[in-house]
Each structure stands twice: as structure tokens, then as C-alpha cells.
## 1
Amino acid sequence: MSTSELLSVIEADGTAPGYDPGLSKAELIHLYRTMLLTRAFDEACINLQRSGQIGFSIPNRGIEATSIGAASAFRKDDWFFPSYRDFGLPLYHGVEVVDMMHNMYGNALDTSKGRQMPVHFSFSEPIKLVSISSPIGTHIIQAVGAAYAFQQRGEDKVCLASFGDGGTSSLGFHSALNFAGVWKAPVVFLCQNNGYAISCPSEQQTASESYAIKGEAYGVPGIKVDGNDVFAVRQAFTEAVERARKGDGPTLIECVTFRMGGHSTADDPTKYVPAEIMAAWAKRDPIEILERALLKSKVLTKKKIESLRKEVAKEVQAASKVAAGTPPPALEQVFTDVYEELPDHIRRQGERSFDLAKRKGDANAGDGEFPL
Amino acid sequence: MANITLIKAVNEGLRTAMQKDPTVLCFGEDVGPKGGVFLATENLTSEFGESRCFDTPLSEDGIVGSAIGMAMNGLRPVAEIQFQDFIYPAFDQIVSEAAKMRYRSGGQYTVPMVIRTPYGGGIRGGLYHSQSGEAYFCHTPGLKVVIPSTPHDAKGLLIASIQDPDPVLFMEPKALYRSIKGEVPEGEYTVDLSTLRSVKEGEDVTVFCYGAMVPIVEKAAKVAAEKNIDVNIVDLRTLLPLDEEGVLEHAKRTGRVVIVHEAPRFCGYGSEVSAMIAENVIEYMEAPIKRVTGFDTPFPNTLEHHYMPDDRRVLDAIEEVYAY
Ligand SMILES: Cc1ncc(C[n+]2csc(CCOP(=O)(O)OP(=O)(O)O)c2C)c(N)n1
């Protein structure tokens, strides 16, 4: 384990000497397929934004191995506090593409009831993926609290908190490492070092020699891995999750990767990311790296790859069709879930707004009386 | 005079202040070479160099805390918080430190700084790219809170805020950044803080508003005029300290008052204006004072057009108050 040398597993020729992912053939194919699915979902969202069908998305190209390699080391009953750039994580654990699409559209079937911007997912089934917040860093310390609860109840579950390099400058990051260290909390921290925080390169974020080393001062072991090598990511997380489960405390894992697109669909990275850097990283595409390894070990064939690609494209297309055809949330959804019980003053505001919408003819179809 | 957008006027205001005073500097997340996510600081790094317009690590606490130190020690920092929704890690620095430094040091140390931040809804930004948090800050003695609604005021109020000896929270209505244009004088000029602006004179109903609600109220007033209701529109533009005398004058003038803001209603800024009028000039009132506001819920995404006060809701209130 090192905070400065990069852990990587898959060699240029696709071999992974001495490495055993501990996955069956079917599981390896699932790992690979999730990467394809994530890429397809990401591309679809960018296109939907460009064509004006959804408002916003967060490009995930290039970071798939980081999210998915990490996800693969956790159990379904662990808890996840992801960043907004972690599409692969829910997909790996069986969240349906269509449920993610409902969120992108913010429609009536969105689990967040159309309240959040796209990519701010929240799922409680089949995994606990805690509602993603926009403010950077706030969730990191919450993951430590959730981990404490597992510890206190004697459960062997673990939390994942994922954030970008920029996130390490937040108050939440420092509180989280400090608390987790003191409590030996069963949590694994994933710092997705994708080179930039919007337009700010890593060297403006920190003067540390790495992000992994930041754990040291808090008594939290750090490790730096090749974030485009899904096996390396998986290996680091498998060890860290195991340690956490055994009661040996937290780990900070820095995954070195690159954001192969804008910060969001509202951003143009060509204005600040040097083209040479982009070109160099393009040669290290995480999907191609895993493809090489799985072709080499004969888990995959070219033909199988083709059929998987078609399959995921179809899946994503079908999901966007369903989500696009789903109506927006009903007006009452603006007023519910503020509290468990609806206070009178909010009820009155809801009634008035429903009345106005009805008078002006834009209450949603299907709404009769204000139902609250 | 040039006819420019509000965001361009902010940029012009910063440039003008930086040209005149070498101690003025701008910083925050993505503020440097990128020029800010809304381009408020576009080209300032190339014009003034990296020591005067630059990026910081991703920490609002760090941005505001360091700005306080700079301000106490002879610089005039203009810190940008990328979205007002992300200001809360700096709440402690603003409320406990910047706003109280002059008082607690008996005037020995002062914090002449500006925190610029885009606020408000209308861009499909959901819970965290849409909020209007002015009321939290207006509850903070020692702080000034300014919100422009035109390009002219944006530049003039910003320069005045930078020259002001006390900390100013300068909230920019992002919905208006590019949706409106207006005449803006070249070079330096200021708009005095704590003075309101009469947007349109009228005799029947006074509507107090600020920021992105101003054009919405103007729209409602046009429809009201067709119904023979003459609306008096007042842009408060400095919320703290407020031009109290001006507010009472305008309230007395029509005896009928509506207050509009997009922030939630409960303990919102409108309650202060309403209380002030009730306490001082209630005998002039011919109708109950009405508020049109965002709901007492977090800010939604898909249905934001129902949440934000629009001209129809404003018109409803104007008619109600007028008919009383
Ligand atoms: C507290 C806070 N400040 C500012 C922002 C605006 N913002 C959104 S994403 C971002 C950059 C985040 O960079 P990083 O943590 O490296 O994650 P990445 O986007 O690279 O995955 C910023 C500044 C925010 N969301 N929250």
C-alpha cells in the first residue's frame, strides 16, 4: 500500500500477472457490461441534454472503472454515499437504467419526485444509495455517522463515501477523516482524482504530494491506485472493505483517473484542459483496458463484446423512451415530504397554488381536488 | 453608455474598481482563467494578472475567511461564492466574524470586503442552484445586503459596495444575468447603498420587490393597467440597511401594499417590510398588506414554475388588495 506509487494491475498487453479478481466468469462479464452500460447511459444523457429533452447531465466518460471497481468490492447491504459522477455504482448493483432515467427527466416516477436536478439520484432499493446533494463534501461526514451506527449495532456493514479531488478541500472531508480515524469507523473514502474541479486543476486544490497522503495525518491509511484499471481499483477496495468489516477502521483511496469531458453539459473543457493531456488519457480508456484483459483471459470474445454493446444500447434507448413518456410530477409533490406531517401553513399554500393552477388551466392532467 | 447585460455590467463594475484601486482583487472557485461559471470575472485574470484575479481551492469557508484577513490588512477583496446555495460553509465566517469584527474590536479592525454571489431560481437548478437566502443574512447586524435588478444598478451598486467600509453581501439575480439588457455608463459611477429605486410611479397599489422579481412585477403591472389599476413599483435594492423612510413614503402614498420575493414566506424579508409598515403607518393602510413569495418548502426542480412567484400570482395579489 502506498500513498505515492500508483497501484495498477492490468499490463499494457492485457495480462494481470499474479492477480485474481475473485470473480466468476459471469461476474467478470457483469463488471464489463456495467462499464458499457454506464458509458451508453452517459452518452445518451449528454445527447438528451443537447436535444433539449433533459436539462442537465454530468459526463462520466473516463471514470467508469473507478466507480465500478469500487462498487464491486461492496455488498448489496452496505451503504453508499456517492458523488454525482458515479453513474456506474448504482448500475453495478442492479439499479434499473429506467429508474435512473426517470431522475434525469425529473418525472412522476423519479424517486426524488422531480425535486432534484438530474444526476442527483436517491435509491433505497436494491441498494441504499443516499440521496445525492449538490453542496460538495457534506455527505462525507454523514457516511462516517452511518458507519458508526453499523458499528454500534454490531453489524458488519460498511459505508462508501465518494467525492472528487475538489471535495478534499471541503470542511466535510476533514471532519470525516478525523472522526472516522478516532472512531475506527467502517467506512471507505473514495477520492476520485479526475484531474479537475470544474476548471481548476489538481495543483490548485492542494500542495500535498497526493490526495491519498491526506489520510496519514488523521491516522487513516491512504492508497493511490490507477483509477482506469478496474482490477486495481477493485483490489484496493476489496482490501479496504475487508479491513473495515473486520473492525480495523477506515481507508482513504485515491483513484487517479481523468474526466474525459466537461464538468457538466454546461461546461466547455476545451477552454482550459490542454488537448495533449486529453489525448494522452484517451489512450488509457478504462473500458478498453478491461476489454484487453478479458480478451486475453478468454472471458470475452470480439463477438460477445459486439453483442453486449448492442444489448446495452437497446436497454438505454428503451429506458429513455419510457422516461420521456412519463408525465411530470403532480403539483402536490411540491408540498409533500417537507415534514412527515403537513403543517397547516404549507397546506394552505398548496391549496392556493392548486386553485390558481386550475383557474389558469395548467394543473396537471389527472389532478382533481388538491389531494392533501 | 452601452447597452449591456447584467452579467456584463457586473464584469464592468469589477474591471472599473480594479483599474482605479490596485488593492481590489477577485477570487473564488473557477473565477480565474475560466472567468467564473457565469463569466462575471471574464478576462480579469488576463488584464490584471493572477495575483489580482484567481482561483481558490474548493472551500467557501476558506474563500470568505481569507477575504476577511485580506480586508483587515489593507486589501479590498471581492470574493465570489459560485452559487449562493453553497455559501453555508462560510456562514460562520460571515455571521460570526465579518459582521462582528468592527463591533467586537471597538472599531480597531474592520472588514471592507464584498462577497458576490448569484442567487435565485428560474434556471432549472433544483434545490441547490436556485435558493434565495437573503433573510438569513438580513438577520445579521454588521452586514450589508445588496441586490441589483438592472445592469445600471448592478455596476453602480457593486462599485459602491467595493468602496464601502463594511462587509457587503452582493446577491446577483442569476435569472436576469442574460435575460435583460440596459444602458450602463462607461467608467466609474456609484449608486448609493440604502436608497431604493422607484421603478414605476403609480397611485393605486405599491409593490415592493427586488432582484429577479422586479421584471415580473413590471409585467403584472402592465396587465393591471389594462384593468385600470395604477401600480407603484419600488425596487428595494439594498435590503440591509433598508431605506426605511423611502419605504414608508411609498406605502403611505397608495395605502395598499404588496411585497414580492421568491424566497420562502415564513420569516422572509417581506415580513420585515410588512411589520415596518404596520408599526409606523398603519393608519394609512386601506387594505391588509399582502405578500407573494416562494412556498415554505425547499425549492423544487421540475415544477419550479409553480414555486416561483409569477406575474399571475402578483396580479392576483394586486387585484385583491385593490378590491379590498
Ligand atoms: C460547497 C460547494 N461549492 C461549490 C460548488 C459548485 N461546484 C459543483 S461541482 C464543483 C467542482 C467539484 O470538483 P471535484 O470535487 O473535484 O469533483 P468532480 O466534479 O471533478 O467530480 C464545484 C465547485 C458546490 N457544488 N458545492
## 2
Amino acid sequence: MDAKFEFLCRMGDSTLILGHRISEWCGKAPVLEEDIALPNIALDLIGQTQMWLAYAAEVEGAGHTADDLAMRRDVWDFRNLLLVERPNGDFAQTMTRQFLFDAWHLPMLQALTTSSDKRIAEIAAKAVKEATYHYEKSSEMVVALGDGTEESHARMQSALDLLWPFAGEAFVSDTVDHEMAATSVAPTPETLWDDYEASVKDILSRATLTLPKARFAHKGGKSGTMHSEHLGHLLTQMQWLQRAYPDARW
Amino acid sequence: MYAQMIKSEATQDDPEKLAAFQARIDAGDTIEPKDWMPEGYRKTLIRQIGQHAHSEIVGQLPEGNWITRAPTLERKTILLAKVQDEAGHGLYLYCAAETLGVSRDELTEMLLDGRMKYSSIFNYPTLTWADMGAVGWLVDGAAIMNQVPLQRTSYGPYARAMVRICKEESFHQRQGFDIMMKMANGTAAQRRMAQDALNRFWYPSLMMFGPSDQDSVHSAQSMKWRIKMNSNDELRQKFVDQTAPQAAFLGLTVPDPDLCWNEEKGGYDFSQPDWDEFFDVLRGNGPCNTERLAEQNRAWDEGKWVREGLMAHAAKKNAQPIAAE
Ligand SMILES: [Fe+2]
Ligand SMILES: [Fe+2]
């Protein structure tokens, strides 16, 4: 499989699945302002997906479109991080997942703005503005709810304990990453870790939350070798119309 | 429209002040929050704007129902943006209502415990993707009929909210019609979905305008105050006149055998919706009343710790500089 295609799917599938998860909140947020803010994030992420997967489809060269990739692949062909397919849980889990993702996504996109691949650099340049805003917002939310009431603090801490083992996957390289780094298309994932850890620790200390000691990281999402059971259910819903009416145009 | 059967309040104010107030309205003046206003005017507006706001809020649910099943990435973004707009409309309207001395939380509590209503239309289910077209085309279409004139309503904050909202609503209607076009010109299954959506949403859309109010005392008072601009029948007629040719353009059949152009009156003759069904829906017996209200209550209850957490943090932040001194 072409490494660049794989890499583009990793970027696009992660934004697609996270955008989908966020969109599940629509109209059901804890406060009206969040009913406005959450769809904004989902919109940005789906918009980025359209750019990543359109380019992925071009690189693949099999005559597919971004929609084909989004709506017609099965679980084993998805390359998103395990973190983003985690169910929404309560608002604490949703915000913690968002924060752990944004804290990686932003520096990743910043690095990609200097990619040797012009198209990737362009997409990253567009996405980085949105990711900056997402990071600001999710880190503010983590601080506010961590340092809010006893209950909000407890919920945020257990969300962090639950999701932290899914944060590490983005920083472990494999052959696809090596090839992307060798051709200066993308940074080596490990090089982003120190800054990631530092910024997460900074926000968590302001949130009066404790980073779990264990460094264990689940793997299998971005390689596609072992997704969680959750992804299949998400795809069942997301892809249903396209699969039930394969000859229709929408 | 999103405010149905609004009872106007009787007013027991100083007759001189009342006359001066009415003179301002008749002269086309805009009433602002700090101006004197009759208690009945204030209460009626709170009820009307509140119900309108609640409709925007509950209205997120039938369309939110399809966001996770939208068939393409583009359709998903369009629908997301639409539902987000509705949340924004709710927010503008709650802000307008707050200028009348009622808080958003108070209004929300009244929605959640059933003291205040929202539009009957949102108690109908969305069953196929074509319903996303039908809702935009018919429901937003009907809402516009009522909201465009309300841009000139006498209460300033309400009128200004309407100006912002109307721009977005007409966009929604075009997007809905665009989905209907795709469906009506698509595969046999898609055409079937489109016709089915029209069949289910036609009469509930006509109900949005409320029953005939020609002899209603409440309507007369609200019209005098310029917080109701047209009679329900007038708006319903306008809606049918606009929509029937659009249905024909789509190649769809309006589910009314008596629908026909009346040259003499320069409008369509059409059948009335089943008003018993309308009153049943208002009483809580529509197909989705229970789910809609339960969903609102669940979101509100489960969100309590979030709202409290955010407020507690904001309070700590505000206290900080003083503590540091
Ligand atoms: Fe609206
Ligand atoms: Fe709308």
C-alpha cells in the first residue's frame, strides 16, 4: 500500500471519526452555548476530512472520491487513531478526548505546514487556524471543569484516567511514518512527544488534575490492525444510506 | 410558525398611559426595553418570544436525528450548520426575551416542565433522508412566512432578532428544496422517499399557522400591538400559494385532492388540516411529544454538573485578584 495514501487516510479518518462523534452531541449539549460551539468543531473537522480524503483518493488513483473513502470502506481500512473512536461518554470524556486530540493535532498540523508535499502543506495551513481555536477551547474547558466543582473535578479526573492510554498511539512510528519522515512529508511522530507532554501537563496542573503515571498506550487504530468494537457501530450508522442505496446520488 | 395560539394578556394599566403607548405603536415607533409598556404587552411578548425560542431549540432534534446518517460529507456539513443556526436562533430569541425581565433559565424550566409550549411541527418524526429536504422546504418555509413580517414588529429586540434569523431561514429553505430536487429526480426509491416526506409533512406544515383566528380576541389585541402582523389564514394561504407550484415543479403530488387554483380569488383552494389532530399534538399526544421533551430534560439534567462546574470556575477566577491583594 502506498505510504502517502496511508498517511493521508490517517489524517482524514481521524478528523472524520472525531467530527462524527462530536456531531452526535448536536442539540443535546449541557448548555446552549455548547450547542453552538460543538457543531463548529464538527464542521471544521469534517471540512478538513474533505480535503485530506480528496487528496488521499487522488493519490490512490482508483477513481474514488472523498465520499467513497468515507462511506464505503469497512473497519479494517480505517486509519484513525483509537482515541477518536472512543464513545462520547459524558461531557467530561468528550472534552478530555478533544483536548488530548487537539494537543497533538495542532503541533502536527504546524509541522505539516512545511511539508515537502505542497498539497499537504496547503491543507495543513488551512486546518491549523481551526486547530488553534479548538485547542484553546478544549484546554479552557478542561481547566474550567477540572477546577470547577467537586463533581466536575471528579468526572474530569476519571475521564482522563480512562482516555490517557489512548493518547500515546499518535507518537509511535511505524514504516509509514518512517517513509513520510524520510521524504520530509511529515515529522517523525516521536519528535512531537516532549512538547505534547509539556503542554498537557501545564493545562492539567491548571485544571488541578493528575496525569496518570502509567505510560501504556493502546495501538492498532492508525495501522488499522485492531480497531475497537466501537468503530463498526459508528460506521453502521454513518455509512448506512450509501450502502442501503448504492446507486443513489445525494 | 413557531408561536401558536398565543393568548394575549388583558391589561389593567392607566388608560392615559395606554393611549399614549398605543399612539406610539400606531405611529410605527419601536418599543425598547427601557420604555414604559403595558403589563399585558410584556407578558404576551414573553410568551410569544419564549415559545418561538423553544421551537428553535426543540427544532434541533428532528434534524439532529439525521446528522449521523447524512449520506455525504457535504450533506453532513450543511445539516450540521443548519442545526447550529437553529441553536443560534434560540439564543437570539432568549436574549430578546430576557430584555422583558425573564431569564433564559426560567424560560427553559418552563419548557421542560410543560408550562410553555413549542411548535406542534417538531412533534412529528423524521423518518427518511427526504425529510431533511421536506423540513427545510416546508417547515422553514412556513416559519419564514410568519417571521418576515415580524421584522417590523413593534418590540425592538424582537424585530432585530427576526432580521438576523430571517436571513438564515431563507438559506435553510433553499437547502431543503435542493435536497428535495435531488431526491425527486433520483432513483425510484428516492422519489418514493420524497413523495412520502411531502405526504407526511404537508398538513402538519399547514397546522404551523394555527387554527383560523378571524374572530379571536387575542389575535385582535396582538395585531393592535403589532406583535402579530397577519391573520393565521392569510399566512396559510400565502404559504400554499407559494408551495403548491414548487411541489409541481418537483413532480410531487400534494396530498390534497381538493387543491386547485381559484382564478377568482387569485390563490389556491385547499383542504384544512385535521384540527383535532392539532389539538391532540398540543395536548402532548403527538407522535414524538414524549421523546422530544424527555430528550430536552435528559440533556438539561445531565448537563447540570457542567453548568455548575463552569460557574464555579468563573466565580473562582473573578475572586482571584481580590484574594491576591
Ligand atoms: Fe430557526
Ligand atoms: Fe431554520
